[in-house]
Design a protein that fits this description.
623 residues, alpha/beta, nine-stranded mixed beta sheet, eight-stranded mixed beta sheet, globular
Length: 623
């Protein structure tokens, strides 16, 4: 019989009474965690050292907080506006400041990108895993409690796993088997009225849960959201190239962030204005002869198979592009979602029969080719294009997406390898890796001769895209691979890459790159199409001042270790008078009238960065 609770602490008492003081709590990746339950169990562990609490999870979301530096000044008002009312995870805050007690361990197979590079607990308790293997590893850890945020039906007799079917649907059969064997295990649902009610596989009856945490204090909690960021020329070039790889009637996965948004908008541009799309592609150039560019509108439409249901896929669905049904009538199968504030609102407000076309499934179904009904799945997943992002690539085709070469983990492998493997298993499928050629404007190259860590090895190389072109690498010789990858690098680094390739015997003496790639040439190529490539094609939660600040802060992040560059920015900030938009941006940061040397220094550096980024690469004023 399901037990109902309105108090998280009483629920925690019941959990401990049922499973004992050794608790292995499994929480879904990202949004769908039972935060109130997790916090209540963590509080008990803080008070009682005899409780041994292990939290098995991934992507523990950490809403931004304010502070005195530039990052904190930007995040503070944003946090107040977007994250006030979000239930923060107490273990995340304590882990961040190195204050987790000895009887608590947090084990994750995916980290919030770049946020835990210097955190010993997170680095030591990271598990490198393919997404499809993670549930098995969690089961092997002895999990005895699953805590999941769920959406209630109107009559409250059904509950949707909503944002996170990913691992929960894979874990539940094993949990049932453990219960049948007499082991103490619990499946706990935590209601949230803001979650959209996703039907089908995501929906469970009340009796499926051992405990449910309900009540206004829990159900009214605000959901974590990810604000959309402005898109620049680099992202748009990668998005345009990527969109020309997608076949009408095919299958698509899209990743999160600027590259995913740029791809979604490029697909919509191709569908609605194919002549403009073709002109953009022609202006960019550097398209390989081995691939036929796809430039027409989508008559049959696309089927979505994506571990993450991103905002861009919802845009494609509403634009009538994501419309090709799989054998079960669904146009999308996905494992989890988290997105901008409007994402869940749009899903909640959607007509039920439309929302039912978007199916949330277990990650073993989405990220791998199911063994049963093999022929149907091959037909469903035809002409697949699986798009993922990377941090670095080597000239020989290795991909690095999750870790630095000193061993520190940036994020995680997630499902990237899974979709590369599917691309090689499915007829007509391709894996496509996108990355900017440099780390920020004028930054170091993201195309290296070699790197000390690999996520996807070069024997699985396929298609790689930067803002400078497309490299078709599958089955290519080392020489052809190196030539293609040098063609994707920024011109500042092409000659060095060629010299290293010659020294390694992979290129002949005297090799010259076919063209020198420059940011200026890229901007010139896309500038005539600026009206078709808006900075925020799907809107944004950022104010005009925040949109203006984003490129300036990104520029400062790129040069933060270059003292000479920072000095030049500070000098430029001191000697110039801010214009109206720059003053508004400085005011948003509390630096319009700085006091003391520290504030004056921050204001000067920021004013300099605002001045050098006053226009986007396509010549438009930001915001």
């Amino acid at each position: 019989m399901t037990r109902h609770f309105t108090d998280a602490d009483r629920l925690a008492d019941a959990v401990i009474a049922a499973v004992g003081t050794r608790i292995v709590l499994a929480l879904p990746l990202g949004l769908g965690k039972a935060n109130h339950l997790a916090n209540a169990l963590y509080r008990r562990a803080l008070r009682d050292p005899s409780i041994d609490l292990t939290i098995q999870t991934a992507l523990s979301l950490d809403p931004p907080s304010g502070g005195e530096g530039l990052e904190g000044r930007f995040a503070g008002p944003l946090a107040e506006r977007l994250y006030d009312g979000v239930t923060r995870l107490d273990y995340v805050a304590d882990r961040k400041r190195g204050a987790l007690p000895a009887n608590v361990r947090v084990v994750e197979f995916f980290l919030q990108a770049g946020s835990l590079l210097g955190n010993r607990h997170a680095q030591q308790n990271y598990v490198s895993a393919n997404y499809t293997h993670a549930a098995g590893y969690i089961l092997a850890s002895g999990v005895n409690v699953i805590g999941q945020m769920v959406a209630p039906s109107a009559d409250r007799d059904r509950w949707s796993l909503s944002s996170n079917t990913d691992m929960t649907l894979d874990l539940l059969p094993a949990l049932d088997a453990a219960r049948a064997a007499g082991k103490p295990v619990l499946f706990v649902g935590e209601a949230n009225a803001s979650l959209p009610f996703m039907e089908g596989s995501a929906t469970l009856a009340t009796e499926r849960f051992d405990c449910l945490l309900e009540g206004e204090a829990v159900e009214g909690a605000r959901l974590f959201s990810v604000p959309r960021q402005p898109i620049g020329a680099v992202e748009y070039a990668i998005g345009l190239y990527s969109a020309a790889l997608v076949k009408d009637g095919g299958t698509i996965q899209i990743g999160t962030g600027g590259l995913g948004d740029a791809l979604a908008h490029a697909l919509m541009l191709r569908h609605r204005a194919p002549a403009t799309f073709r002109a953009c592609l022609a202006a960019l150039g550097n398209w390989p002869a081995s691939l036929e560019p796809q430039t027409g509108p989508f008559e049959e439409g696309l089927y979505g198979l994506s571990e993450m249901f991103v905002d861009g896929l919802l845009e494609l669905f509403e634009a009538g592009i994501l419309k090709r049904p799989a054998g079960d009538g669904k146009v999308l199968h996905s494992g989890f979602f988290v997105g901008p504030q409007s994402f869940c609102e749009r899903l909640r407000d959607m007509a039920p029969e439309r929302r039912a076309l978007l199916s949330m499934r277990e990650i073993s179904f989405v990220n791998a080719l199911p063994a049963e009904d093999h022929a149907r799945h091959l037909a469903d997943r035809r002409d697949a294009r699986f798009f993922n992002a990377a941090m670095l690539a080597t000239a020989l085709g290795d991909i690095c997406s999750d870790q630095l070469d000193d061993g520190r983990v940036v994020s995680g492998v997630g499902g990237q390898y899974n979709f590369v493997a599917q691309a090689f298993a499915l007829p007509g499928a391709r894996s496509v890796i996108g990355l900017p050629s440099t780390r920020g404007a004028g930054g170091p190259s993201n195309i290296r001769w070699a790197y000390g860590h690999t996520t996807i090895p070069r024997h699985l190389k396929d298609i790689v895209i930067t803002e400078y072109g497309v490299a078709d690498l599958r089955g290519r010789t080392d020489r052809d691979t190196v030539v293609a990858m040098i063609g994707l690098a920024d011109g500042s680094f092409q000659d060095d890459l060629a010299r290293e390739a010659v020294a390694a015997g992979k290129l002949e003496d005297g090799f010259e790159p076919a063209r020198k790639n420059t940011a200026a040439a890229l901007a010139d190529a896309l500038r005539p199409f600026a009206a078709a490539l808006p900075a925020c094609p799907f809107g944004t939660e950022l104010t005009s001042e925040e949109q203006r600040l984003v490129p300036a802060l990104k520029h400062l992040k790129t040069v933060r270790t270059d003292r000479m560059a920072l000095a030049h920015l500070a000098y430029a900030g001191w000697r110039t008078t801010p214009d109206g938009r720059e003053r508004a941006a400085l005011s948003r940061m509390g630096l319009e009238s700085p006091s003391g040397w520290r504030e004056r220094g921050l204001a000067a550096v920021l004013a300099g960065a605002l001045r050098v980024t006053r226009e986007d690469p396509l010549g438009r004023p930001w915001a």
